[in-house]
Structure formats: C-alpha cells, structure tokens
Amino acid sequence: MSTQGNANPNSSVNNYSMSSTQNGGGAAPCQNGPGQMYPAMYTASSYYSSAPPAAYPTVAGHSAPPTGKTPVSSTGYSGNYYQSSSGLSPYPAPGTHQYSNAPGQSFQQTAPYAMPAGYYGQVYSHPSQGQTQPQPQQLQPNLMPASSGSNLGAPLYPIVSYPSAPGSSQYGTLRSSQTTAGQPPVSTVMPPPPTQSSLQQYSQGIGATPTPAQPGYGAPPLSQAATVNGQSNAVQQHYDQNLHNPMSHHYAAGPPNSQGPDKERPPSGPPGTSVHSSPQHHPGLLYGDRGVNNAISSAAGDHSSSSSDHEEEDEEDEEAGGDSSSTTTDSASPVPNSYESLEGGGYSDLAAPPAGVPAKQAPPFGYNYPTMHPAYQQNPAPKPNPSPSHGGYNPPGYQPYSQPFPSLSELSSALGGLGGVSELEAETLRPVNLLQERNILPPKRAPPPEPNLSNDLRKVNCSPDTFRCTLTNIPQTQALLNKARLPLGLLLHPFRDLTQLPVITSNTIVRCRSCRTYINPFVSFLDQRRWKCNLCYRVNDVPDEFMYNPVTRSYGEPHKRPEVQNSTVEFIASSDYMLRPPQPAVYLFLLDVSHNAVESGYLNVFCQSLLDNLEKLPGDTRTHIGFVTFDSTVHFYNLQEGLSQPQMLVVSDIDGNHLVKDLLNALPGMFTHTRETQSALGPALQAAYKLMSPTGGRVTVFQTQLPTLGAGLLQSREDPNLRSSTKNVLHLGPATDFYKKLALDCSGQQIGVDLFLLSSQYSDLASLACVSKYSAGSVFYYPSFHHIHNTAQKQKFQKDLQRYLTRKIGFEAVMRIRCTKGLSIHTFHGNFFVRSTDLLSLANVNPDSGFAVQMSIEESLADTSLACFQAALLYTSSKGKRRIRVHTLCLPVVSQLSEVFAGADIQAISCLLANMAIDRSISSSLSDARDALVNAVVDCLTAYRANGSNIQPSGLIAPAALRLFPLYVLALLKQKALRTGTSTRLDERVFSMCELKSQPLQQIMRMVHPDLYRIDNMTEQAALHLNDSVIPQPPLLQLTAEKLTREGAFLLDCGSVMYLWVGKCCNETFIRDVLGFQNYASLPSNMTEIPELQTTYSERTRAFISWLLESRTFLPAFHVVKDDASTKTSFFQHLVEDRTESAFSYYEFLLHIQQQMSK
Amino acid sequence: MEAAVFISSLVDCCALIFLSVYLIITLSDLECDYINARACCSKLNKWVIPEMIAQALATVLMLVSMHWFVFLLNLPVASWNVYRYVKVPMGNMGVYDPTEIHNRGQLKSHMKEAMIKLGFHLLCFFIYLYSMILALIND
Predict the structure, then answer these.
(1) Less Cβ crowding at N or C end of chain A, within 10 Å?
(2) Interface pTM (ipTM) of the complex?
(3) Entry's Pfam families (chain B) (predicted)?
C-alpha cells in the first residue's frame, strides 16, 4: 500500500471507502509491488453507518475469560495468560478472578503467541507445584483471592461476551486438545456438510453486497471498523447469535479433531451470554477466527480446516452486524473496563523504550537460561523441569519479574563493570573441554537462549518458535562477526499455527513512511504524536485514528494499542493490499493413473482420504475443486451437470459435491486394468497451469514414476553402484529447467504446486522437486510405497494426507523481511521465489514450512543498542480475506566477541549451516559442503580459543553455548542428505535436502539429532501431571549404542518417524503390558503402533508418546524394531555418536577437529 | 585494410559498451526493485550470446590482423564469456537465473562484472580509436 493511500485526505478516516479514487488513485494498491488498483467491489456507504469513534469497535480479547466457563479451562487459561503477560503468577487461581482483582496490574496481551494447549493444562494442573513457588513479591497477594474473584468476575466482564456455547466450546477445544493431542487425527465428529452453512452464508452475502459472487469481499468493510481482537473466540459467538444454527455452530466449535467429549461440553452459560443478546455487541466481539483454528491445529496437530468454518461464520456475522447498524461505540464501551483492569498502568513505558535502553540487563539468575518468558517455552515438545520443586513451567518465567526492579538495575550496573559479561553470559561462556566431558547432552532438549534484553522488551519479543536468530547477541560490525566465525541468519516459521493471535482491523495500518515497517512493540514514541521507526529511525506521525485505543477506549495512548503490545499480530488488510479481488480457494488434484500408480494402490488411499476430508478443505462458497488424471495422456473430468461433452471441469464443490464424491468413489476402479506404463507429467502440469492461471490456487501432484513422455521428460540419472560412493555424488541438481520455468510461471499466476512422490524406483526428485521449490509448495516422498506390502508407508501417507488436506492455507502470499538499517539479507533458504531483494513470493503458504535467511552487517551498528527484524506475510485466507501477519524480533547489539559467543543459538546455527551446506553441495559438490561444515566448527572453536585468555591450552575447548556444536555438525554429516559412504538412494538424499531446506527448525533438529529415551522403566518420579494424566519424563540419552541395553526398550523420536527398539532381554512385563505380546519371541517384526491396553504401564507409555506428539502437525510413522530384525539398521543409522564404516564416531570427530585446529 | 579492421572493431566495441551500460541499468533496476527478477533475467539472458559473439569477433579480428597485444587483451574476456556460458548448470535458466540472482550476492557480482567489462570496453574503445586514426593517417 502506498503512503498516499493512507494519507489521502479524500478517504475519510472512518469511511472505509473502497473506490479507487478515494483511495488515492495514484497509490499502488499492493504493499509489495506495483500493480494497479482494482475498483472496489462494493460501495462503502452501505457498510458504513457508524460514527467515527464507532470505527473502533473493541474486542476485549483477553477479558474474554468466561466467567461461566468450567473452572478448569478458565483457570488454566487465565493462569497462563497471566504469567505470560506479567510473569507474576504461576498459580492456578482462576484467571477471571485475577483479572478482576487486579485492576491496577500491569496486565495486557503480551502473549500473542500460541501457547500450546498443553501448557495451560500443565499450569493448571499443578496447583501444588505452583504454590511451592516463592511468591512473586508485592503484587501477588492481590491477585490471589480466588474465591472472591468469581463473584467479581461476572460483573466486570460482561462485555467479554463470552459466548455461550461456541466460545466455551472453543475453550473446550483447547483443553481437550491437551488430553487428546497425539491421537491420530481421525475425526470422530463429522461436521455437517459445508453446504448448509455456506449456502446460508452465501445468501447473506448476497443481501449485503452488491457483488454476490464475492461474499468474502462483502465482509471486510464491517470489520474495518477497527476491531481489535485480542483473542480468538468471538467468532462462534457471533454465529450463535445470528444464526442459531446449532449444527454449524457445533461444527465451528468442535473442529473435526479427535477431541473427544470435551469439545462437546455444553456451553456453560456464562454471564457473557446476556451480553450477547444485544446485537450491538457484535462488531465489538469480532474475534480473530485465526486464533481459533490455530489453537486447534497447533495443539492437536491437525485440521486447520475447521478454521475455515469459523471464518465463514465470522463473515456472516460481520455482515449481519453491519445490517443491524450496530453502534460500535456501544459494543466497545463495556470492553474498556475489562481491559483497563487488565492493562492497569504497568506497561506505559514498555511501548516506548527509551532509545538508549540498556540492552544488557543482567538477568538475575545467572544460571542457564533462567529468564525465559513463559511464552517461549512452547516448544513443540515442551519439557518442563522435572524437578518437583519447580512449578511446572513457571519458574524460569517469573523469577526475573519477581525481582524488584531496583535490584535488577543494580545488578546490571554492577555487572557492567565486568565488561558487559553478565552471569548468564558467564554461564554460556563457561569453557567446556569437549574431550573430557562425556555427557554433554542436557537431560531434556535445551530451550533456545534468551536474548539479553530488558524484561519489558523480553516480554513482548517474538516467540523463538516463530522467529529465531542464530546469534541472540548481534555483533556490532561485520568484522566482529567475521571474528566469531559464526553464521548470522534468521530462521522463520511465519505461518505457524498459533493458539493466540491478536487480529486487528483498522482503517489505517500504521507503517513507517520511508521503510514501510509496520508499527511494532520496539518503536519508540517520542511524544504522543510521533513515533520513531526502529528499523530506519525515521520519525513518523501517529495518525489520529491510532491515537484512540480501542482496548481501553481512551484517547491519546497510542503505545497501548495492540500493535504496540504484541510482536506477533495480524491485520485485516484493506483493498490497498490487493492487486485483484482476493482469490477463491481452488484446488486441483493431478493424479498419476499409469500402471505403476495403480499397482501401488495409492489411488484408493487418496480417494478415501479426500472423501473423508472433503468438507474440511479450507475454503468458502467460492471454493473450487478439480481433478486431472494422466498416464500417457491427460484426462479431464467434467463434473458439471447437464453438459454433454467433455470439457474442463473445475466445479464448485458446493454445487457438484456429490459429483466429486461419485468421481472419487469411481476413480480407483477406473484404471485397474490399465496397461499404460508411460507418464506424461510435464503436459499434465502444463494443462494444470493453464487451467489454474485465471484464479491461482493449489495444484497437488501425485506421481509414481519418472516422467517419460512429452515436455519435461526425464532420464534416469542414478547409477546404483555409486549409491555408497565416498566420492562425489552427482546429479543433485535438476536435469532440466522445464520444471523450474513452470514453477516460476505458476508462481507468477499464484499457483502453488505440491508434489507427492510415491515411487519405488528412481524418479529424479532433484528435477521434479523444482516445481514445488519455486512455487512455494511442499514435497512429500514415500519411497517404495505400496498399499499392501508397505503398511507403514501407507499409514504415514494417510496421516500426512489428513493433515495436508485440512491444514490452513494462504493464497497469493508475499513475505517481506525487513531489518534494522545496517543489516542486509543476502541469501534465502526455503521454498519460494525471491522476487526482489527482500520480497519472497509465495503462491501458497502453509503452516508447516519454515524459511531461513542469511544476513550480513553492511554498516556498523555501533550507534544502536537494539537490532530488529520484521517479517510481514501478506496473504489471502481461504475465506477470501486479505491478511497481514507481522512478526517482529528484537535483539541486543554487542561489541565484545565473548558476548557474541555467549548469545549463540546452537540449534539455529546448525539449521542455518545445514541450509548453507545443501546449497553448497548443489552448486559445488557434496564433499565441499561436508568440508565446509567441518571447517565451520574448526574455525569457530579456533576463534574462541584465540579470543579467550583464561583457557587452558590442552583439550578441545568450546564455550558452553556452543558445546553441542561438534555433535550437531557430526549429526548433520550423517544425515541422508550429506552422508557419504553409506548406501543412499539419490531420491532419498534429495528429499532429505528438500526437508532440511523447508522444514521449521524444531522439525529439523529432531531429524538431525533425534531424541532417545529409555521407556521400559519410566517412573512417576519427576513426571509431569497434565489433566489427570501422568506423563513420565525420562531423560534424553546420547545417541550411541552404548546407552542401549538388551534389557531395555528405547524410543527414538526422529520427527517424521519414531522407533521403539526392544532389546532381546526386555522385561516381559513391558512386552506384555505395553506391546500386548507374551514375550520377545512372539513380537512380530513389523509392528507399527502401540496397542491401547488398559494397563498403567501401557497408559503411561502412550501418554508419554502422545505428549511428544502434542505439537506436531504431521504425525510420525511408528515402528517397533526388534533387536534382531533386519530393520534395525534403520534404527541404528540414527545413532550418530557411533562409528560407522565410513564415518567418525563422536570422539574421533572431536579428535579430528582438534587436529585440524592445531594445523 | 588496417583502418577497416579498426573501424569494425570500433563499431563492435561501441555495441559492447552500450550493452554493458544496458546490463548495469537493468541490474540496478533489479537492485532497486523496479523490475522483478524474472523479467530482468529473461532480458539479460537474451544478450549473453550476442555479447559472447561480439567479444569473440573483436578477438578474432585482432588475431587475423595480427595485433597481438590487443588480441591478448581481448582473449581473457572472450574466454570468460564462453566459460560462464558453458558452466551454467543444467537446471538453470541461463547465466542469469531468476531463482538464484538474489542469493549469495550474485546480483552484486554480476554488477561488478558488468562494471569491469564497461571499463575494459572503454579502454578498448580508445585503443581502437587511436589505432584507427593512426591507420588512417598512415594510409
């Protein structure tokens, strides 16, 4: 969007005029590029009845805690919230009470991130633990009176509109997801077919908008009336009010998760319901639907499809609200109360950190990473401190906050004398002699290092799961960075499923006038009317509209706007951000039906999966779905009724729903006797491209062999004899530019291509993957897939499809990454097309892809103490809304080499190095890439040795922050992608490379360095208590066969696959109670799941496994491996610390590094 | 004869100078985000072979007219042009690949290369001009 567009006097602030002239004709409508403005689809007037102040309907996101909610969920939730925002109390005191009791508290939405539901539960279910915590000082007591709170809560929160049924059911969802997470995402509750609700919606849309074809379009105007959604709940509520469609409401509320009974928990009518009866509240209650489905999907790891349903309702409501000419003022009015009580005064200075804020404040606890913001602890598999003395997750989070401020500053000033090395740094810098320290692996996965920021900034900083930097202390100059010999880069997971995301609807999205940065928590307000951009340091005016804070309904507090209180926010974008009307969700499936494909039987599995999930495909009434099959020819299917001749058939899945189903039922049978062995993938893709060009959308390709016909045909390039060559591996790059060109064409037309390769022979994935790589798709590979002979693969395929079909999707997306002046991005990793220096073009964006960028420091950062990075993702939701998700990360700048080492994030570094190594192996050679990895360790440790004066000369010394560096690099060298000497199929190698480049960090780390646990002797000691279930916490073991014993059973968690290794002499109770067999001998060699037995042993084991899976989106394949089975090699290849015939053991590797260093 | 050789070299050189300027303009357009990578690369890739031929022509002209010094001056540039054309990986869309140009500082190195070539062609231009005048006078 252009500045003119914003500033245009023609477009009055409140009137959301969509006409192009009013928006300032000259303004480029699209944020990220040229492009003409499309005329508005509807007239503004019809939507805009509300008075100026009304343009700020407020949503009290957080005031939401429904008083009427079941105590469990509300407690958990608020407790969590409470902590995350103020870090004050881990106590399980019912949140509502807390809110109401603490009007003066510094309370606000600082935790925009998703807390995995499990987190809440943990907090909640640990009342006793929580209380063992020392009470965080002064403020605490006020908050505690839980009993009185309940009474207070009701009156204070009427606004909160805590919806009757749906709202609470959302909570239910959250809660239930804790318990059921990890279950296979088979939906137990079938949602009503979308036709119902969508049709209704459709009609409404027609009524409301002049352009009935675009209900999605019609909706936004209302929402334009600045709705601030702190939270994600109101959607259903709206729905409820307006439509009273219990069916769909149920649908919305109970996402098709395997959520069990919880979600159906009847909405306990909270006081909020009364509020609802008044339609005026609607606009104000407009909550982000995103959050809802996010909550669901991230927590339970599956269907984000439900999201779409929420959105549908959302839209309806918006329109309904508009019709009812709700005065937003009314709706907003009650909100502030609650918000005021929430926000108190505590944060006034937070938003406007003085420019010279001392970046390094010593965290009071010098030990490891004590000062974690609770929000940071939402690692996919959060591992709480097992020690019972710590209250669940809280301790690290709140200790720093409990520290009285003066002491903090004293401490920091005292430490300032030590050359800026704080206790934290001292710990992370502690020299470790790698050759002597045998057990360097922490007992649980180490959390990411905490940036050394002041508490205020730390609290609002972006979650490390979303946004991570390899160096949490940014070096001042490139010279300093070079001295450290560590890569500087960012790892992003921008479209991650979030449970909590403030969604902001506002006429003007406030951005810096020169660099277009979105306003964020790290800008400084010079005074009430001006703010200084934290990226380019330009001073900007605060627009009038921004002066009004919808949260508190007060004027003149721009620093309390949600944009300034949260580092992850989502804006509903106006038409300025559109190049064309938002596209509908269009899905095209390109199915290989050659003999090979039919033989493998994937068609059955796919058709069944799609049939099951047809209703859950994200989309609205405009959703289209189409099918193309191909062997040596390309077949199209006409699904339109009343047509006599074959014609391309893309048909709305609403109208032609039954036809789609018929086709899906018939498809597997149609080609059973095919003799066609050729595959014309290229022409099929070209056809798909032509078909999709007018709209854009997603093409899903299923391919089972090498394309042999037509354009884009490929030859087999793999020489099986060279699979285990220790010399160079050839053919890692594409053989032709056909797929790349096609991908770029697709990307230009906003078409994303996802590739499922299910083949037993070489299919030249290196070439085929290009089609996904540059169109921002994803690649899935199932080597030797067969529906009968390879059940494990089949199960994995089914699970993946389930997630794939139902996950959230964003269309026609672009992502821009901005950084503080002086830093620049020079290399990008991931699946996308880099359109200009900092703009990534993503035809589709999905919640499971990660990105990485490398940066260099072009100008000295000496004049600033903070470096900031902002990733803004502009996308069209499956409901046809343009949205912008903005993440901002803030890190301190340091001038000492030791501080750079202290802030190194070893996991992020390893991932970035992996990405770089893969680039290197494709552009240069594999051996070069491997050498470069080893040199990265050698150089870095040499740099550390050269820097440190107090280090004993002998041994291999690494700072504690980097002590896992050699281990991770060794693990990387043993990855399929980079290993040599071990027989590796070319396709598998290339797939592994694709994964390393496009997966988010957590997933990569599990893949590179899997987690090994002994699970046959898990005790309740140090176990985690979650919602009545006990989750044992066995320590992580080093990845060496040394740790395995014949008497034990071990679980190896590699991210996309899990192995349960059963030793020969494993105790029989375990085999009987957990695996359901009499003894070791009777165990079959191809078990792929753990039976659900009613023994405590089994329950405990399953609880542990499902806890591990809690935050995964794709469920791993599961293998039970017997000690003597032939499959055990696949298990042992993950034991990276051991020696193999062609690779070093860990100790040898260390010696090798030492030798290299002494050269 | 001699004059004809230098006149044609001069024309050739002028073309190369214009081409270098065009490269620099297009690349800096890309740098400033005025055009997208796809358009930029397809524009530039069109000129890779003409440039190679023009440079080879100048080199060959000097070789056949036996101006060894100027020939040796031109040879490295001509061979570099051929080398980079041959070295394009199979999957790439030419010397300038839109998917790679923003990575690993490629844009900068292309820019640097174009600058160096511009300087070189300017140098050649004056050499040719001088030699041409000399040849014309001698005639």
Answers:
(1) C
(2) 0.88
(3) Cornichon
